[in-house]
Fold this sequence. Notes:
The chain is an alpha/beta fold. Helix content is 23%, strand content 26%. The chain has four helices and 13 strands. The strands form four sheets. It has a seven-stranded mixed sheet. It starts with a strand and ends with a helix. The model is unreliable at 1-13 (pLDDT under 50).
Amino acid sequence: MPIEIRNGPEGAPNEGAFEDGQQLTVIGRKLQIGEVIPDVLLRNSATPHIHRGETRPRNLGASYLLYSVNGFATPVCEVEARECQKLVIVGKIPRNITLFGLSNEDSVFLELWSQQNGINFPHHQLLSSKDSDAGFKLGLYIPEYDGQLQRALFGVVAGRLVHTEYIYDQGGPQPDFNAAIDAVRVATYSDSI
Length: 193
């Protein structure tokens, strides 16, 4: 099956994704460093620190990392979430940077999954893009997977992207969290001067 690329207005095309040798369609424009992160509707799961509800990227904080996965219940993405949790636990991610995981799964499922897998709030939270345009606006929507998201990692400081990484092999390597943490740390520091 050939890759189908749909470009958004003004910007680089999204090169698509693949898994197990199968080419996948990715709908949406690939975001670039320096752009304002798109305003999308996200749903958060209830935690001891927040109530279940809706939020937007502008409300997530001054400095954060946002990683997207196909689904937290899939083996590769479950490993990714657990590796992220380890980064929080060992202090690799500074406390002034919040980590958000994003999937197209229901926020109630994410709440239960978080509890079962020891996700550490408030510094690591899971968000849902279900029933929203987040997949399209972030350049992550995979129609072959019933709207699941392409794996990616974004670093955001003061509403602007300071790191973007799209993972093309959906069953492959983890994003470069060290590079994203460094980019956010440097931008946060230079933003505060």
